[in-house]
Amino acid sequence: MYDAFMSEYELLGHMTQFKPSDTDPTGYYIPHHGVLREQSTTTKLRVVFNASCPTSSGISSNDIQMVGPTIQDDLLAILLRFRQYKYVLSGDVQMMYRCVDVHPSDRHLQQILWRDNSSQVQVYKLNTVTYGTASAPFLATRCLYQLGLDCKDDKIADVIKHDFYVDDLLTGGDDLNTVSHIRQEVTKALSSACMVLRKWKSNAPQLLSDISESSLDLNIGSPEPTKLLGLGWHASSDELMFLVDSTISHTNSTKRDLLSVIAKIFDSLGLLSPLVITMKMLLQRMWLDKLSWDEPLSPELSAPWQAIVRKLPLINDFRFPRIVVCESYTHLELHIFTDASERAYGACAYVRSANDEGKCMVRLLMAKSRVAPIKPTTIPRLELCGAVVGTHLYEKISKSLRVRFSRVFCWTDSTIVLGWLQMLPSRLQPFVRNRVAEVLEQADPADCTPLTPGHFLIGRPLTSLPQPNLEEHSTTNLTRYQRIEQLRQHFWTRWSKEFIAELQQRIKWHSSKDSLKLDTLVVIKEENLPPLKWRLGRIVAIHPGTDGIAHVADVKTSNGIIRRAFSKICPLPVTTESG
After folding, report:
1. Matching Pfam families, A to Z (predicted)?
2. What is the pLDDT of residues 307-319, one digit of tens each?
3. Does the pTM of the predicted model rise above 0.85?
4. What separation in angstroms does the CA of 471 have from each of 459, 464, 482?
């Protein structure tokens, strides 16, 4: 298999033998080895080139290469869009890296040693972008992205630029003709760069009827699911599933075993969050007990772990509907629920869709959970952390999906968190203030509906139900008087409780202010009297406390000297003008 792979490599012109006279002493020799992938339906053995191997100088080729930025959409965004389409289509670019040539002047930096069974060791140069070099992913994806930039059809250009994850295509649409057009045009655009799309698969067989069998996924018609970006997908039933190795030892388990199981569960959408977070909480307990990697678990930890191991094979039986919206929907809502406990917090997002026929569908779109920090904290703070996670879900979903939600709801059962979101940030502690600001950056709880011209004309949307006609409604003098008196009392109460208190602010986390001094003219606040009955006085003595700071003063009034706390006296705002 190794010989066949290398022979094909040379036959396709992807590597060329160096002549002895052309050997460059400044070249770099890349070690290579084979990787056997039994699950692969096309290339069982792939040769991997290790450009991270250091030379005699201690520096490797990858050490001096620039990696380049990420220009494609991330994995989660592509998977989220994959769940919105009625008809989906997946494909793979054949030998994508080897479709991109390396400039001849740089090929001496990609030298390898190889020989057939019957020949001597020869020096070869690799002519294409090589899998295993640090810059390979960027070089290949940048060429693919350029094909999208050069495409004149905006729809096809958008698919090439945003629906590819490295060499895997995951796209779709709500109309068969549209998806068929996408497949044909994307294939044509990539063929201009000698890139061939293969391993086609779809939940609509009619989309693949005109494709040769050699270009189809070999799993079509098989009961085994196809892996799409690490996620299992059964095209015939259009369901998502997970493929987890259940061959785990039931005895002598260690912390290393638990971490290995967690790492094997690839769940970027968070559909298995209740299970994964349980294992992460158990792993946290192992860290608290300071267990080494290969130390057997204690009975207190072994029992819950064994219970998880016994139920782990059931994951392979889980089925999740791929599509999250109903057919021909006219109303679309996003509901994000957040919650927390003493040990974990998280959020989940549901999509609710409805059409004109009265059909309604509610589906789980994604979720995210996190283990609570080891340092003890309060439940409201963890609830706030859950709200932050929910905000991140909303931000990711709104940027990834190509739909417009009619309404978006973010739910929390913590009244304290809702109170924090309504408070001034300056009155909150740093931990709370920073997270409240993060939530408010994405959503204003006081303005959840976009403003329209109707809000400025009639104070509400134009689509709202009309109010009763009050043109001929008569208002009596008594009703008018009661309304005016109600407003007067309302503003008087606010003035007496809010403005007067502003004269003597003593908030500990603000900058310090000058304390009350002798001979200061003050108003003595009396809760049981109206403000016009509050007495005036002048401070004649100040009494410092044990901390050296004055909190009490003697005030001389018309009825004598009384002692009051600073919180009960307010200095009058006296201003002086220099003449």
Report:
1. DUF5641 (PF18701), Peptidase_A17 (PF05380), RVT_1 (PF00078)
2. 888 888 888 889 9
3. no
4. 18, 20, 21
